[in-house]
Amino acid sequence: MIKKNLSLLFLLTVLVSACSKNESGTPDPIKPPPGNSSFSFTQLKVNDTFNGFSYYGLNYKPVFKVSFSAPVDKNSIAAAVFVKDKDGKAADLTISYQDSDNTIIITPTTNLNPLTKYFLDVQSNLKTVSGGNLLSPITLNFITQYDPADKFPVISDDALLTLIQKQTFKYFWDFAHPASGMARERNTSGNTVTTGGSGFGLMAIVTGINRNFISRADGLTRTQKIVGFLKNADRFHGAYPHWLDGNTGKVLPFSTKDNGGDLVETSLLFEGLITARQFFNSADPAEAALRNDITALYNSVEWSWYQKNNSNTLYWHWSPNYNWDMNMPVKGWNEALITYVLAASSPNYGIPKTVYDNGWAGNGNMKNGASYYNVQLPLGPANGGPLFFEHYSFLGINPIGLNDAYANYETQTKAHTQIQYNYAKANPKNFYGYGENCWGLTASDDINGYMAHEINNDNGVISPTAALSSFPYTPTESMQALKFFYYKLGDKIFTDYGFVDAFSLHDAWFANSTLAIDQGPIIIMIENYRTKLLWNLFMSAPEVKSGMQKLGFSSPNL
């Protein structure tokens, strides 16, 4: 008999959890066994609507109506009904009754906090007037809406762009590694510095000088420090590793077998170094020496050696311990166009066009041509992938008016960005907050660690760098996002180093991290949108012009 009752209770609990609905859209009532004095939950409404047991974007004083199969004992309410935040702090509640006390109406006495996760618990010690207990407890989770009030004074759009650039610049200036001047991987990285992120940092320094955030002399001194460090840091056939120790210049393994040269990170570093070389163009002996040092470093990268035994593609990694075990060819479409451009541009270790055509372009296999959210996409995976594909290489390479045998790159970069914007507006997964003011998916920190967010891999996490680094492609849409991020969410996501890496309004989650590879594109691409500064500098490099022409590119900037 005991076993039979336990089985029945388990079945009833499962039915409540499954939350089956009848034709009215409310849960099917669960009736206690005949002769049992216990009572059951029969109906739930949140602000007069039933939508399961999870709610998003609720107002600050939502009304919960919970109905039962028998009148409740009012004296049992205080010990059985709670609204608590995720830290367990209980809200004061106002309770009223309907339907001869079969329905309790629960309302917070004062406003709940914005963008906060709460739980409504109705526990099984709730009693009926006849003394029976609630058959199964009820738990509902909900998240309150964001506060629509502006968090900072409204300023002009131009002033706002400058403010964002200046604040983000601090990551690369104030938080740079003290010994090497290199960019730390993230705001908790200690001595771990990133080569690709430092390339972005060099472009940020150029931007900072141009915007008068720092003097040219101070920018030169910092760049000299970085280049001096790089001259003595570990290299592998001329290529730098992903991570270095900022004190010693020794390789720090990114993973067990990734403890050698990283050709893509190296190309992102030299994107910044070449841009800096073109900027420091005066006859001053210190600037001339810096230019010579950067050129010597670039000319010693053995790009062609990374063809892996003369194959027709470039390979991402090589390790002195594990050789080519990582076995990752650099194939398009992704962020690594810059790798093939700089490899083709090298005067000492240049690759031929056949390596670009076969390795990168797959002889046309990287083409797409399908339409997503009413926009045709020339290259890449379905829906485009994460947006950093259109950022990293194009910090220096100007895609406007750029063509080759495979695509018009102005069309590519704009199409991918527009697809993501249209996706957020359509919001097919019904994530709270998504829309024309809140969009942008790319690789970033995540609720569960780190994730390459994209349309095909979307869990409700927005990465500010995605929309903000797209200013040259979608200026109107990016400005909408910037104003929302800053004015509406700024108290949650705007910090000493600019915007945090990611957030989710749907889950009321906000990262406390900043990453070099995400902060850098924000300041750089806003500047390219405003003045084309970094584009003009990088594209002015004679090696780059000849290398891109060798690969079949045409552009007004070549």
UniProtKB/TrEMBL annotation:
Domain SbsA Ig-like: 63-144
Entry keyword set: Signal
Domain Glycoamylase-like: 329-541
Membrane-spanning ranges: none
InterPro entries (UniProt xref): Cu-Rt/internalin_Ig-like, Glycoamylase-like_cons_dom, SbsA_Ig
Pfam families linked: Big_5 (PF13205), Glycoamylase (PF10091)
Signal peptide: 1-18
Protein name: Glycoamylase-like domain-containing protein
Organism, as annotated: Pedobacter nutrimenti
